[in-house]
């Protein structure tokens, strides 16, 4: 093989690698969530007050929970509901929970047209808790986990990559304070390469309230744009 031809092939490989990395970055630029919502006689916002509480008693009073509860409170207020300081003063009690699992390693071909952050759902379950906290994967959810990284080398590993993916989830329940009747239930789950709650929880809350309250019994895929691209 001539030196010129070898040089040309090297340039093609470098260019292809750059395009592949750009493609993966594009996939990671949006946050994909699967949202399932159910409602029964959820009242119109006018005149309705609410308070956000921890669905898991162990989280009640925690600073971390308070941070994420404020996100839910802001979204409810945008819908027209009025926040109050105490559940005793509220007409609606909003119960909130969140978590992320311990992750699992995946190996996939780097072929064109695959979606590493969405396709894992087709092989897993989706439902209340299951073996894990928010369902499906058989890994208990936990809070405050460390980062997990995979590795990638298309030229030395034969066109495959290994990486760690995590399933994160939130649950939202709205009860009528007067009689405890359940008016709304929603779950949002996402598969991503991040297990940082500071990243996944805000995105999941955003997804939950996109098109809120939704059609009862419908599960939809919702894409949340990067924060800098969102319109207020």
Give an overview in words.
The structure is a single chain. The chain is α+β, with helices and mostly antiparallel strands and 232 residues long. The protein has a single domain (32-229), classed as Double Stranded RNA Binding Domain, CATH 3.30.160. The protein is 24% helix and 30% strand. Strands 1, 2, 3, 4, 5, 6, 7, 8 and 9 form a nine-stranded mixed β-sheet that branches. Residues 12-28, 115-132, 134-156 and 228-232 have low confidence and may be disordered.
User: What is the overall number of helices?
Assistant: 3
Low-confidence stretches: 12-28, 115-132, 134-156, 228-232
- Largest sheet: number of strands, sense, barrel closure: 9 strands, mixed
Ends apart, CA distance between termini: 58 Å
Query: Mean pLDDT score, rounded?
Result: 75
Write the layout of secondary structure elements.
Layout: H1 3-29, E1 31-39, E2 49-54, H2 63-79, E3 82-83, E4 92-100, E5 104-109, E6 151-152, E7 160-176, E8 182-192, H3 197-208, E9 218-224
Parallel strand pairs: 2-3, 2-4
Antiparallel strand pairs: 1-8, 1-9, 4-7, 5-7, 6-7, 7-8
Helix pairs in contact: 2-3
How would you sum up this structure in a few lines?
This protein is α+β, with helices and mostly antiparallel strands and 232 residues long. 24% of the residues lie in helices and 30% in strands. The protein is elongated, with a radius of gyration of 21 Å.
């Amino acid at each position: 093989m001539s030196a010129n031809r070898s040089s040309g092939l090297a340039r093609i490989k470098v260019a292809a690698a750059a395009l592949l990395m750009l493609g993966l970055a594009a996939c990671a630029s949006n946050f994909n969530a699967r949202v399932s919502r159910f409602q029964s006689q959820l009242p119109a916002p006018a005149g309705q007050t609410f308070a956000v509480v921890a669905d898991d008693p162990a989280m009640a009073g925690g600073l971390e929970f308070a941070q994420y509860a404020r996100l839910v409170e802001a979204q409810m207020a945008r819908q027209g509901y009025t926040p109050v300081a105490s559940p005793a003063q509220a007409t609606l009690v909003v119960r909130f929970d969140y978590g992320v699992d311990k992750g699992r390693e995946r190996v996939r071909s780097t072929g064109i047209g695959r979606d590493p952050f969405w396709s894992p759902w087709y092989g897993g379950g989706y439902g209340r808790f299951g073996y894990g906290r928010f369902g499906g994967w058989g890994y208990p959810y936990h809070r405050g986990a460390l980062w997990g990284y995979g590795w990638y080398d298309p030229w030395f590993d034969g066109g495959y990559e290994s990486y760690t993916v995590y399933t994160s989830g939130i649950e939202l329940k709205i009860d009528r304070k007067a009689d405890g009747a359940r008016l709304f239930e929603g779950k949002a789950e996402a598969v991503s390469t991040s297990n940082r709650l500071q990243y996944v929880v805000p995105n999941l809350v955003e997804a939950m309230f996109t098109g809120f309250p939704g059609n009862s019994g419908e599960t939809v895929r919702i894409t949340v744009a990067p924060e800098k691209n969102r319109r207020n």
